[in-house]
Design a protein that fits this description.
The protein has twelve helices and 21 strands. It is α/β, with parallel strands linked by helices. Helix 4 (about 180-190) packs parallel to helix 5 (about 205-215) and helix 4 crosses helix 12. Residues about 15-20 and about 20-40 have low confidence and may be disordered.
Amino acid sequence: MQTVWVFLLVLCIFIIIFLNHDNSKYEESIQEVLDDDKEKFNTNIDQCVPNYTFYEQMLKGGRGNRKQKRTPLLLLAAYEYVDHVAVTIQSDGWYGQDVYCRYLNKNFEEISQPMRTKVFPEWTVMCCNRDNVSYMSITTKEDDDIVQHTKLLSRKPQDMKYELSVCLAPIYGNETKWLLLAETIEHFRIQRVDHFYLYIKDIDSYSRQLVDYYVQTGIAEAIYFENRQDRPRYEWHLTGVQDCLQRSKYESRYAMFIDIDERIVTSKPNDLLQVTRNFFQDKKVGTVTFRPRWIFRNKPLPVKYEGEKTLRDHLPTLVFHNTTHVSPPGHTVKAILNPIAVLSMWIHWPMHMYPGFKDVGVPPAVGYIRHYRDVFSGDWGKKWMPETLKFGKLSSTDYPPSLMPRLFDNVKRHLDLTYGDTLPNGF
């Protein structure tokens, strides 16, 4: 019994000493460890971004930094890969700026610590993966309130859906787009393209009906930019190509970056997919590029579809033939690429391609772009048309005759399905 009392007395003395002891140094030490871990956690981007050494070199090199005025931070999309997340933004002028990745669960609650990173490539923020994340946000400070978020889309090898897709340059401006859009989609569907990513800045309500139709049929998906006029409209082109690089990665084996008035044709009609496969048999090929010939469009597009006569009078591939010589190698080319080979994309070619990959130019005899260019749009006729005339003599050329009837019928059928209820009697 005496032993028990002695033990209790010693225990009480120990507790009194402990409670009166200055533990501040111990607590400070623990906090320092936690802060170190937190700092390491927040800056661990080099542990998850693929080929980080190359990434860092390109960032420091500054290529692609347009040094534009910074616009308010606005998210576009977020993509989860095996080892990292890429968040795309609509904001201009953020190249190289410090920002924080913020992680939210399905209930929009923040989980995990914010992670410091940079905006690079432009319009893109690389983050490390975290478990149980459903939404992503980006803020300029670690403790900023989260006022916007975007759903995290899975992009892993098992998510591959398509073999060849089109990343269509953003639609903008006041000109009606429905006829060009229908012809673009139906031309490339004949060429065995599986899917279309449609980027839209501005569009008239009549053309919007056709966009909605193609989305509802599953042929395309539409990505709409915010209704902001904070930069020249054509500059949204750059935002679109950068997002589509991430959007197509691990969803489409190959992605084609093309404008709404461009049609790639091959020496063997209906052979674009096979041409693509042939070039990419070489695993070192990251991109293949096609040179253009310009076909001059010299009258406005129709405002509305009124049946077959509208197509007979206005379908670009049918009515325009005045054609330039092919451009020199590398001049205003367009690319089909393996998205995983490219770090960042430009309008005509990759801005940064990962080490070990190369670009291959397609000989015009194998395939080239028929670019149906509106000569009255902007200052193109005065500024750029004279340059195209330096490439050689003009000639009269046709869209591949073996494909023209099929293209015409397909365009007509889908326009009838979209606008049939509004057509005049007897169309």
